[in-house]
Design brief:
This protein is α+β, with helices and mostly antiparallel strands. The chain is built from 8 helices and 17 strands.
């Protein structure tokens, strides 16, 4: 706001106010008197500019944005630990600790014979990424095999600043109150493992509200995550009683988002000299994964997801070794693929035939 102000300008303005019969050259008494004060005045303008930046949600730094959010009852989503499934040849003791790569895990709950929930001891999304053979940190009698097999509830990093800023600015547009749609969206997002949610009014048996969930890795949520969310939102044993975050009288059904396999064929690719399909196939698969992830991240606010051929072909041209691409098909059709409203894409076969 004060970008146009400089110390030199402030000094010149001050000197202009002094009578011309006084020596105002650099080194003169009046120049030496005014110069330190204009430096201080310039620093004051800089401080004022910083203060104005921090006063408003669209420009505030994270520290002051968090303070502004508190006035609206909004707090950053905290980092959470991943919950995973471990399979063992025996029932291991609750509290047993294991390691995999650089991470440690602790057994927290028995699911079945030799099957347990493990919590990653490190918070954040890093706990979502490793699977395989576990090594016991302390001796476990009779243990012959221990494997981390499945992500049940994704770990999450602390909410990013721009996500928090968006929630703060959005809070002025619609009031979350008493079980309205915005209330459900906000409260469900506060629970661990949520990447997206859509709320619907329904008439299905006892249910009058349906929540469709996308997990925080932007994939179909696991059954344990759905069960955990159902209990937190509207417990099955006391549905409609308002004992979860759902309003009293609301019987809520929590379901996972559907999934549609997307197989893509790129039959007509012009390669640079020295390149063929085997040289670019991994890059093409990564490109498709990135494109589908981008679409999944927008699922919550989209009416339905559309996989567009023109987008795929445009992104193909960014891959090193590819000059041109034509005649692309999705699931055998030379048309865009429009998914059902509550469905996300899952990469199938990527071919060049």
């Amino acid at each position: 706001m004060f970008e146009h102000i400089s110390q030199e300008q402030l000094l010149n303005d001050a000197l202009d106010m002094v009578k011309n019969d006084v020596d105002k050259r650099e080194g003169a008494i009046i120049w030496d008197t005014l110069s330190p004060h204009t430096i201080q005045l310039y620093e004051l303008y800089l401080s004022m500019d910083g203060m104005l930046q921090e006063m408003f949600g669209d420009t505030a730094s994270r520290e002051f944005l968090i303070r502004l959010c508190r006035d609206r009852g909004i707090y950053p989503y905290s980092a959470e630990k991943a919950i995973l499934k471990g399979e063992f040849n025996i029932d291991v003791p609750i509290g047993s600790r294991f390691s995999l790569d650089t991470l440690n895990y602790i057994v927290i709950e028995r699911i079945g014979n030799g099957v347990f929930k493990l919590e990653c001891e490190t918070v954040g999304i890093v706990g979502n990424n490793y699977f395989g053979q576990l090594i016991p940190i302390e001796y476990v009698d009779g243990l012959a095999s221990a494997t981390l097999t499945e992500l049940l509830i994704p770990g999450e990093d602390e909410e990013e600043t721009e996500s928090l800023r968006k929630r703060y600015l959005d809070s002025f547009e619609a009031l979350a109150y008493g079980g309205n749609r915005k209330d459900y969206l906000e409260k469900v997002h506060e629970l661990q493992g949520i990447g997206g949610v859509k709320a619907f009014r329904i008439r299905e048996g006892i249910y009058n509200v349906k929540l469709v969930i996308l997990d925080s890795t932007y994939n179909v949520p696991s059954l344990p995550l759905i069960e955990t969310l159902q209990t937190a939102i509207d417990p099955v044993t006391n549905q409609g009683e308002g004992l979860g975050i759902a309003a009293i009288g609301h019987t809520v059904l929590v379901v996972g988002v559907g999934e549609s396999t997307v197989s893509i064929n790129f039959p007509s690719i012009v390669f640079e000299d020295g390149f063929d399909w085997e040289d670019v196939v991994l890059d093409v698969q990564q490109m498709v994964d990135d494109y589908l992830l981008e679409l999944k991240k927008g699922w919550e606010v989209a009416t339905q997801i559309v996989i567009r051929i023109v987008q795929l072909e445009s992104k193909m041209l960014e891959i090193n070794g590819i000059i041109d691409v034509q005649n692309t098909t999705i699931n055998g059709e030379a048309n865009n693929l429009i998914l059902e409203a509550n469905s996300i894409p899952n990469r199938g076969e990527i071919t060049n035939v």
